[in-house]
Specification:
The chain is of the alpha/beta class. Helices cover about 30% and strands about 25% of the residues.
């Protein structure tokens, strides 16, 4: 038998102590709760609803306490959300203040509350807010007014009696029943301009005009802004009124202060949340997570457990791999995660999906160490609230952020670690970021106040990259270039150091002044001999202590429709020219998203495998992706690395000191892995 020297034992003890130290710092509650967690403490949950309607005449028929108990035992969530009142307006429990569904066999809300109490699982309800068909049909005086003066058949007025006579009393009734909180749906994304007399008076006080404008009118944007003020007053009012009597009842308004509502939090929401629907949930989750994460509130994001075609109404259950990829995007950004499955029309749970639910729950729990981590500032993608207000066609939801969404996808596919920051974030934290990217999006720019803020940032040593034709024109003076004619739309070929990207898009021809550096060439032919003349793809120059650069081509839509690895290589060359020594980067190939985070004194470097047919709208479900290749992680921390662990395996990995950076070899992985560094 081989002799065991004491120093070997000491070495093992020190290793496990260091492992326990790192894991102890970054881990949190991992299920089997000894107490019911508040939403700010919660990491993982499930959402259920069925939007009760006239067909629901046997609510509770198949639901049993044993069914709920089995589900909770198998999945061990921190909380669940169940149906209470959907957009139809019918309450799916016996209510004294609301509009009941036609028929009940059991009080399902009472059953859920009883069993969740047993497991110390918090219980929230899905409650439709300003969207309530029954309420406005029964009380048309509560409804918002359409442009023609008729009452909306779906949406309540922000300043009508709906809040005080139904919404607030029913939320208090739910709090009295011992429910932990409410996830208010059908809110900002469903908001419509209200042409009521109350809004007419307020608009006159605001503008002096006594006629409410319609789309296309001169003052329509001011009218939309008044509706946003009214909507936030609606949120503030009902939450404050409920909190007066039930301060522990936790409330959010679905999608408040998200990409749909890119504003600073100014209402007493207890947490932020939203639900990612439709297809291509990976990129939606990546985008929405980055919009919620910097808002300063506990947040979570919900993935629908099924792919849904809104035209066909066909729910196709997602594979475990699809859910893991979406969860990885959320968890890596420090958020909580929940999955949505529909209840049956009687309110019972679909037991078919229990095994899938348990699997995704276990997978997420293995990664709970990421919860409440915060980004390491590297690249900030500027979501201009000023431009959003100018372009937004509705009160909140309008789909005007496709270009910035596609730009984020392009940067993430290029293995850049990126945050999304709105105007109010930049006002507070702009100097923390080595590189700010202003994506193509708006013809009007970002407003004089924010432009001055950005240029002061550059003057003092920051780096700004503006993208696309319009921003190239808007920042021409600062870039030191001259605009040569109108934008050109054509088949466009971009050459740069052996790479050639082809796309049909707009580009701006420019004249270069002395001292301006260029990267890449734009031609309308793919043969340099046929067309020797060119316009620069990108330019940059020193400005004060910093740098400013521009990409003179519209890439966002082109990348979305004509996705090209060559476009990624060329764009990364521009970023490397402006930001040559990122704190964290990847060396190697593969479809990998990089998310660099920190938690207390540790860095958590997340790597997400985004292989798969998620971008193919003809593919509803896929269940297999290719593992990544081995890659190298390059990190440049301010201090030496003491320990490095590959998670969630908790396996120690080697760190190579290469002088001005550290290098770590990352083996192939399936969906998500991360490296935890302690200093």
């Amino acid at each position: 038998m081989k002799a065991f020297h004491p120093k070997h034992r000491i070495g093992k003890i020190l290793f496990f102590l260091s492992l326990s130290f790192v894991i102890g710092i970054i881990s949190g509650n991992i299920g089997d709760n000894k107490k019911t967690l508040r939403r700010a403490e919660s990491f993982f949950g499930f959402h259920f609803d069925f939007h009760a309607a006239e067909d629901c005449k046997q609510i509770g028929h198949l639901l049993t306490e044993e069914m709920i108990d089995t589900f909770l035992t198998q999945t061990k969530p921190d909380y669940i959300q169940v149906d209470c009142k959907g957009h139809n307006g019918y309450s799916s429990y016996p209510t004294k203040v609301g509009n009941q569904a036609p028929g009940f066999e059991k009080d399902i809300l009472k059953m859920f509350r009883k069993v969740t109490h047993k497991h110390n699982v918090a219980l929230y309800v899905h409650y439709s807010g300003i969207w309530d068909n029954v309420a406005v049909r029964t009380h048309p005086e509560w409804a918002a007014r359409n442009m023609d003066g008729t009452s909306s058949t779906e949406k309540a007025s922000y300043y009508g009696d709906y809040d005080d006579k139904l919404l607030i009393p029913q939320l208090k009734e739910l709090a009295e029943r011992g429910i932990d909180g409410a996830w208010i749906d059908g809110e900002c994304w469903a908001a419509i301009p209200d042409y009521s007399d109350t809004m007419r008076v307020l608009f006159q006080e605001m503008t002096g005009l006594n006629t409410l404008p319609q789309p296309g009118d001169k003052n329509y944007k001011e009218f939309l802004e008044l509706n946003r003020i009214a909507f936030r007053d609606h949120i503030r009012h009902y939450i404050n009124e409920v909190h007066k009597e039930y301060p522990d009842f936790q409330i959010t308004s679905n999608w408040a202060y998200s990409s749909m509502m890119p504003e600073e939090i100014d209402t007493p929401v207890d947490y932020l949340s939203g639900d990612v629907a439709g297809q291509n949930g990976i990129y939606s989750s990546a985008w929405e997570s980055r919009c919620l994460a910097p808002q300063g509130k506990a947040w979570d994001l919900m993935s629908w457990g099924f792919t849904f075609n809104f035209g066909q109404g066909l729910p196709a259950v997602k594979s475990l791999v699809m859910l893991q990829q979406e969860a990885a995007e959320v968890i890596s950004m420090g958020g909580g995660f929940q999955v949505y499955y529909q209840q049956n029309r009687d309110g019972s749970l679909k037991t078919t999906y229990f095994p899938r639910m348990a699997e995704i729950a276990r997978w997420c729990r293995e990664r709970q160490y990421c919860h409440k981590s915060t980004p390491i500032p590297q690249i900030a993608l500027w979501y201009s609230t000023y431009a959003w207000r100018d372009m937004q066609p509705g009160v909140y939801a309008g789909g005007t952020n496709d270009k910035i969404w596609n730009t984020l996808a392009m940067l993430l596919d290029g293995k850049q670690s990126v945050e999304v920051l709105m105007d109010h974030h930049l006002k507070k934290n702009i100097n923390h970021y080595p590189l700010i990217i202003l994506p193509e999006w708006s013809d009007i720019g970002v407003g004089e106040e924010m432009k001055k803020l950005a240029m002061d940032y550059v003057q003092n040593g920051g780096t700004l990259l503006v993208m696309g034709v319009e921003h190239t024109r808007n920042f021409a003076t600062e870039l030191g270039i001259r605009i040569a004619g109108d934008p050109i739309e054509s088949n466009t070929f971009i050459f740069e150091k052996g790479h050639l990207a082809a796309m049909h898009t707009r580009w701006q021809q420019i004249d270069i002044k002395e001292g301006i550096e260029t990267v890449g060439e734009i031609r309308t032919s793919d043969d340099q001999l046929v067309q020797p003349s060119f316009s620069p793809f990108a330019v940059f120059r020193s400005y004060g202590k910093g740098k400013i650069g521009a990409i003179t081509v519209d890439l966002a839509k082109a990348y979305s429709n004509q996705r090209s690895s060559e476009c990624l290589h060329i764009t990364n060359q521009i970023i490397s020219s402006l930001y040559p020594t990122p704190k964290v980067s990847i060396k190697g190939e593969g479809k990998i998203h990089l998310v660099a985070m920190q938690k207390e004194n540790n860095w958590i470097i997340n790597l997400i495998n985004v292989d798969g047919e998620h971008s193919n709208e003809n593919v509803y479900v896929y269940d297999c992706i290719n593992p990544t290749r081995p890659i190298k992680l390059i990190v440049r921390p301010e201090h030496s690395i003491k320990k490095a662990f590959l998670m969630p395996e908790k396996r120690k990995i080697r760190v190579k000191d290469q002088g001005d950076y550290f290098e770590l070899e990352i083996p192939p992985f399936d969906v998500h892995t991360s490296v935890v560094l302690s200093f």
